[in-house]
Amino acid sequence: MSTSSQIRRIGVPELRARKGEEPIVSLTAYTAPMARMLDPHVDFLLVGDSLGMLVYGFESTLPVTLDMMIAHGAAVVRGSERACIVVDMPFGTYEASPEIAYANCARVLAETGCAAVKLEGGVAMAETIAFLTARGIPVLAHIGLTPQSVNAFGGFKVQGRGEDRAAEVLADARAVEAAGAFGIVIEGVPEPLARTITQETKIPTIGIGASPACDGQVLVTEDMVGMFGTFTPKFAKRYAELGEQLGEVAATYAEEVRARSFPGQEHCFDAAPAAAALKKNG
Ligand code: KIV
Question: Full-prediction pTM beyond 0.85?
């Protein structure tokens, strides 16, 4: 019998049932220590492929590999006990066919222990989402400003402006819902469009640069705490300036090392007796 803690993880059906109820709270996490800190406060942790920029220093999410997502997904599962864990499918691992998507999503679920995958796309991905969900793989869809399409969009630009484009994004939402997605991340669209999608779908919408009317919100944790350089997207509220604080702490440490005031006696092993013995023998 397991002796591990009795805390039960939030599951996909519980998230699904939150449509129109208490807002769903989500943040990104890529490592076990970060997962441990955020776990008590969120409903689901998203192991986003934004780790390509935030952990690996790439300019976009496109170079992120399945192995990277699996390594970070497994770390976040190990570091958490309560939150539902959703792992992003990286670019090139699910678009070619439902069968390829199934093989790669199954690896992610089996090798990380996560509960669900997230993939980008609406109408174009509906067949794949139906194939996955019919075979037991819960899918969180991601529509609007989908960062893996940065080249097609010509940059990270708000999507769904104007009647025709808004109708396309709404059609994406309807398609992924009909295909069996348990929720929809809506990123970077006009606020009234996100509100309309939320009203017109029966599955939870999770907003990022979307609308307070969404059924939940997600932020990239590093954006939220000021740990990603100077650029913060308009939609990311900076609740802290940890990057600035880290710089100040590193400067103090450097000063103390150079002045030999760090380490102190309290940071050394057997320091006082050793010094006394040396003195006596000398
Ligand atoms: O990769 C990511 O972190 C995401 C969120 C921005 C939704 O997809």
Answer: yes
Residues with CB under 6 A from ligand 1: 28, 46, 48-50, 88, 142, 185, 187, 208, 218, 220
- Please enumerate in sequence order all residues whose Cβ is within 8 A of that of 130, keeping only pairs 6 or more positions apart, or say none: 98, 179, 180
Tokens of 150: 């940065």
Ligand 1 centroid to 147 CA: how many Å?
8
Interval 67-85: pLDDT, tens? 999 999 999 999 999 999 9
Cα(220) to ligand 1 centroid in Å equals 7
132-186 pLDDT tens trace: 999 999 999 999 999 999 999 999 899 999 999 999 999 999 999 999 999 999 9
What whole-number distance in Å separates Cα of residue 92 and Cα of residue 75?
Answer: 23
Report the amino acid identity of residue 280.
K
H-state helical runs in 135-190: 150-153, 163-179
Angle at CA of residue 55, ends 50 and 56, nearest 5°: 95
Task: Give the integer Cα–Cα distance in Å for 171 and 196.
Answer: 12
Distance of CA 182 to the CA centre of its chain: 17
Q: For residue 22, which amino acid is it? A: E
Spot the catalytic one: 120, 177, 187, 222.
187
Distance between CA atoms of residues 134 and 157, nearest Å:
33
Q: Contact 215/185 with Cβ under 8 angstroms?
A: no
Say if residue 273 is preceded by a cis peptide, omega within 30 of 0: no
Q: Would you call 187 a catalytic residue per the annotation?
A: yes
Taking the CA of residue 250 as centre, how many other CA atoms within 13 Å lie in the half-sphere pointing to its CB? 6
